[in-house]
Amino acid sequence: CASLLLRLYPVTYEPCLSALEIPAWIVSHELVDCTASLSEPNVLLLDIASHKLNDNAEWEAPEEILRIDNIARENLGLRQKKDAFAQPWTTPKSTPANTISLRFCFTSTIDVQDAHLALENAAITTISLDGTPVVAESSGYWVDECISKIPLPPIPAGSHELILSLPFGAATNLERVYILGGFGVDLRGRKATIVPLALEKVAVGDYTRQGLPFYVGNVHYDFQLHVEASRPQRTAIQVPRFVAPLLTVQLDGREMGAIALQPHTLDLGELSAGEHKLRITAYGNRDHAFGALHLPEGLTKWYGPDAFRTAGEWWSYEYTIREMGVLTAVRVLMTDEEEAARKGWDRGSIKGYL
Q1: Which of 153, 143, 145, 144 is nearest to 116 (CA)?
Q2: Which residue in 16, 142, 151, 316 is a FRET match for 180, CA 20 to 30 A apart?
């Protein structure tokens, strides 16, 4: 619980913005049709793998990567990584005495070119794809400088095995890995499949259900804003529902401002009659690649290292994916009541879409 104590004083000066200067906005119409583009490659998250230690011939049953870390530490007599695990700079460095191999399996319905593998510890990891060695030569990093991007050979349609081998010791971190590229991802429960990326079909609504469940970059929505008027019209836009840290708005290539807080409205100023190019960028966050995706929704607002290592009712192999993006149509607002009425909003806003 919290409390707030306010002390109010009479106004002794003229407010700098009078009520008369605040436009009385009227909804003119809605913008539904758009084209979408991405600020960075799409993501296939891989965090379920089979594993084996040292020279063991048999692969263990598939398991989530941090649970593999627990199992391997228990088998080797190493301390488990928990909330109270000491920071690495507080413990003496030692050379890992063991090797762990991880086998990730995935399926693609299409041929994939120019994909990259994003992973930590690339310099000490041996990589193979479908039995063919992959040179761990970094072409840059993704999100964080510790996450290297390794070019992958062409990936044909079908089922694939990605095998990683690396030294394993008390200070080793086993982490998720990612395939990056110009593809879509179809997520159904706990199974994710590479599919075609149909950006031309991405519509207003939750983009995680439109081939982008693990995508963590920004999404650009491009609309055509038509102003029908005999004279310039004071115009604004409102985005009633969106899930993003921030929306930014461009009009005809010019930066117009940002939308973050209620009433989710941005004044575009006086617009001339005709067509205008409106771009709304929904900023992403990194949760759907790096968050506690196996912690079921609604159990807690607590977030810490052990949120990634839950069990029982606090665990699910299915991924917890939340809505993202511009969720409803963009509303165009005007101050001219007569001009706005000509659009017939509410009567015609869904024409052609039902």
Answers
A1: 153
A2: 316
Q: What number of CA atoms fall less than 13 Å from residue 253's CA on the CB side?
A: 0
pLDDT digits (tens, 9 = 90+) for 79-138: 888 756 667 677 777 889 899 999 999 999 999 999 999 999 999 999 999 999 999 999
Contact 140, 104 (CB under 8 A): no
Q: 165 by DSSP, 3-state: which?
A: strand
* Exposed / middle / buried, residue 79 (Cβ in 10 Å: 0-12, 13-18, 19+): exposed
Q: Which DSSP state fits 79? A: P
* Length of the chain measured in residues: 354
Residue type, 1: C
| Dihedral of alpha carbons 76, 81, 84, 85, sign | positive
In this structure, CATH architecture of domain 42-195: Sandwich (2.60)
| Under 8 Å between Cβ of 127 and 134 | yes
**Distance between CA atoms of residues 219 and 323, nearest Å:** 13
Q: Which CATH number fits domain 24-40+217-284+324-342: 2.40.50.140, 2.40.10.340, 2.60.120.260, 3.30.70.100?
A: 2.60.120.260
Lowest mean pLDDT among 9-13, 286-290, 323-327, 329-333: 9-13
- CA–CA dist 272, 226 (Å, integer): 10
Residue 220 has pLDDT above 60, yes or no: yes
Where in the chain are all domains bearing CATH 2.60.120.260? 24-40+217-284+324-342
Q: How many helices (H) and strands (E) does the chain have?
A: 3, 24
- Alpha-helix residue ranges (DSSP H) falling in 15-86: 65-76
Q: How far is 266 from 260, CA to CA, in rounded Å? A: 10
Three-class SS of residue 266?
strand
Structure tokens that stand for 310 in this block? 């839950």
